[in-house]
Specification:
By secondary structure, the protein is mainly beta. It is built from 3 helices and 19 strands.
């Protein structure tokens, strides 16, 4: 009998944690965006945006950029001349200030020699790990560059570098032409697993004879004990929808994933909802959850954001955001970062920081 209260306490604690996890609702926390909460650079397209808080108490932002004078359209610019740069701020919502280019072009002979894009940074054992996608080609042919996408990692002791780059990608295409990732791999979404190993989810396209851009876009997973690899590809059900969706070219894009002890000891991901299958709005931002990082389902509150966001003056953005990423401090998401205005073609793009209220 003396043990009964303790058993009840344990059951109540577990139930409370599960309830809290199920009630993680990022959409309910989204706030109007102060007009100052955007990062841009004159003369550049600015895209992506991976934020993190450093041991120095400052906030660090890794992003993609390319000169408008090199390519005055968003596409094909991102594939031909993008580079990954670094900015810093004393505050989570900026202002962020450019520091340097961390992954510049380094020559056509390298797998990532002509363009770098899609940065995501994590910190592990005092090291800064910058996962990214690299491309090579003739500097002119869009499909050639797009299909050369491979995934790499750069490693540094300091947020500003210098960075150690590798001569080979850490995740490459599968040689089996029938595989879902037989044409190109991109959009790395890394996360530290509880055992200290690394999980990387990635976007891929399959080879289709006679089609320059290949076939449908789906997601895969790879794991490794070391940042530089080797990585082992493992199957899973990643960002799929119920019902017959085989005919759909792409369902989800641009994942950001994290593991939360606070919210149920599970993995979460936010992605772009390409056709509106999960949020009801094409181009919205949706949230998934997973117990193992391999098998995913829409979270209890899947809609994070529609295909527009609201500014503090009451107006709305002209376009959706893409490349969503969270700034997480002490296991609590405090801001949603994303690239905005990309599909206005010649309009300079920027990274926006959307405030999230804190869980009471």
């Amino acid at each position: 009998m003396k043990r009964l209260p303790f058993v009840l306490f344990l059951l109540m604690t577990v139930a409370s944690r599960l309830l809290t996890a199920e009630e993680l609702d990022l959409g309910a926390r989204v706030q109007p965006v102060p007009m100052s909460c955007k990062f841009s650079e004159p003369g550049y397209f600015v895209w992506c945006g991976s934020p993190t808080k450093g041991p120095d108490g400052k906030f660090h932002l890794y992003y993609s950029r390319w000169l408008q004078t090199k390519c005055n359209n968003f596409m094909p610019g991102w594939a031909l001349v993008s580079e990954i740069a670094y900015a810093i701020s004393d505050k989570p919502f900026g202002p962020y200030h450019f520091v340097n280019v961390v992954l510049p072009a380094r020559g056509q002979a390298f797998w990532d020699g002509m363009a770098t894009h899609n940065p995501t940074v994590i910190q592990k054992d005092g090291k800064w790990l910058l996962f990214y996608m690299g491309m090579t080609g003739d500097g002119k042919n869009y499909s050639q560059h797009r299909n050369s996408q491979r995934i790499g990692v750069a490693i540094s002791d300091k947020p500003e570098g210098p960075w150690k780059r590798f001569d080979q990608p850490i995740i490459d295409i599968s040689q089996d032409k029938s595989a879902f990732d037989s044409l190109m791999v991109t959009n790395p979404a890394p996360v530290l697993r509880p055992d200290g190993s690394l999980l990387v989810l990635y976007k891929a396209a399959c080879y289709v004879k006679g089609k320059h851009m290949g076939g449908r876009i789906r997601y895969g997973a790879a794991v490794s004990d070391k940042p530089e690899g080797p990585y082992q590809k493992i199957p899973g059900k990643i960002f799929e929808a119920e019902g017959d969706t085989e005919k759909e070219w792409m369902l989800a894009e641009d994942p950001f994933i994290w593991f939360s002890k606070k919210y149920g000891n599970r993995y979460y991901a936010i992605t772009r909802d390409v056709i509106g299958k999960f949020t009801g709005e094409s181009g919205g931002i949706t949230m998934f959850q997973s117990d193992d990082g391999l098998n995913w389902k829409p979270s209890a509150h899947p809609k994070v954001l529609g295909n527009k966001f609201q500014w503090a003056d009451g107006s709305f953005s002209r376009t959706k955001i893409e490349r969503p990423a969270l700034l997480i401090v002490d296991d609590e998401p405090i801001a949603l970062f994303g690239g905005a205005d990309g599909y206005l073609k010649r309009t300079p793009t920027f990274n926006v920081q959307i405030p999230l209220t804190q869980n009471p």
